[in-house]
Structure formats: C-alpha cells, structure tokens
Write a structure and sequence with these properties.
Shape: globular
Strand order of the largest sheet: 4-3-2-1-5
Order of helices and strands: EHEEEE
Number of domains: 1
Distance between the termini: 32 Å
CATH superfamily: SH3 Domains
CATH topology: SH3 type barrels
Number of helices: 1
Number of strands: 5
Helix content: under 10%
Length: 72
C-alpha cells in the first residue's frame, strides 16, 4: 500500500467525478480541508470538510482529491 499524499489540515480540491466523460463534471473542483486520514482497513482514505457554504463532511478516496494552490 502506498503512503497517503495528504495530511490533516491540508487544503485540497475535491472532485466527485474525476473520471467522467463530461468535462463539466470532470473539471469541477471544490475547496476542502482534510479532517482525518482514515486507516488502511477503511474503504475510504480521508474524511474532508467541503468549504462551499453547505458545511458538508464526507469520506472520500484519494483519487478524488487534488493539491490546492497555496496562493489562493
């Protein structure tokens, strides 16, 4: 198993459908923060807070997260 790319309190960009055939879904990115790195026995890799005004907390796989530009 490879090591996790992100740590707790890292800002990331979340994409719900990164492998979609539709550009609109594939290019959508929501600014999020990593709340927890889940253990290797879990189906998901991270628990994140999506910072879009809905206060959503979601468990996600690493393939759905992308590095966030630090200057924004």
């Amino acid at each position: 198993m490879k090591p996790k790319r992100f740590k707790v309190d890292d800002w990331v960009l979340y994409c719900q459908f990164p492998n979609s055939h539709y550009d609109t879904l594939k290019e959508e990115r929501l600014r999020s923060v990593v709340l927890e790195v889940l253990d290797k026995n879990s189906i998901y890799d991270y628990r994140i807070f999506i910072d879009n005004g809905t206060a959503t907390v979601r468990k996600v796989k690493e393939e759905n997260l992308f590095p966030c530009d630090k200057t924004k």
